[in-house]
Amino acid sequence: MTPFEDAVCAVLSRLAPGEVVTYGEVAAEAGSPGAARAVGTFLARTETSVPWWRVVTSTGRLVPGHEADHARRLRREGVQLHGGKVRTKMVRARRRGP
Fold first, then answer.
1. Contact (CB, 8 A) for 81 and 74
2. Which of 14, 21, 25, 42 reaches 20 to 30 Å from 98, CA-CA?
3. CA angle, 69 as apex, 18 and 31 as ends, to 5°?
4. Which residue spans within the chain are E strands per DSSP?
5. How is domain 3-95 classified at the CATH fold level?
6. What are the C-alpha distances in Å from 9 to residues 25, 29, 34, 75?
7. Phi/psi at 22 (nearest 5 deg)?
8. Mean pLDDT, 10 residues at a time, over the chain (98 residues)?
9. Which of 64, 61, 68 minimizes the C-alpha distance to 85?
10. How distant, in Å, are the alpha carbons of 11, 76, 82, 91 from that of 14?
C-alpha cells in the first residue's frame, strides 16, 4: 500500500462503532486535505478490511449502488438515517470532542 493508503486505513481504524466521517475528513486527517475522491477510490478498490461504511459524502449520501448494505451497517451501529442519508451535522457533531 502507498503511504496515503496506510494513512487512510489508520484514520478508519481509529473510528468507533457509530462514528461517521466524510471522505474529506478522512483525507484531511490522513494528511492529504482535498483528496476526498482519492479516499473514495481507495475504499472502492481495496480488499483491506476497514470500516468503509463509516464514511459518507459531505452531503451525507451513502455509497451509490450499495445504499442498502451501507444503511444496514450504519443502523446496526446506532446511526440514524434521514431520507436515506446521514445528516452531515450529525457527522460533524460525532467527530467533535476531547
1. yes
2. 42
3. 55
4. 21-22, 55-56
5. Arc Repressor Mutant, subunit A (1.10.10)
6. 13, 11, 17, 22
7. -95, 165
8. 96 92 94 96 91 94 93 94 80 51
9. 61
10. 5, 18, 25, 15
| Extents of the domains making up the chain | 3-95
Q: How far apart are CA 4 and CA 32, in angstroms?
A: 8
Q: What length does the chain have?
A: 98
- For residue 89, the model assigns a pLDDT of 60
Q: Are 88 and 59 in contact, with CB atoms under 8 Å apart?
A: yes
Partners of residue 35 on adjacent β-strands: none
Cα–Cα distance, 61 to 36 (Å, whole number):
14
C-alpha grid cell, residue 32:
492529504
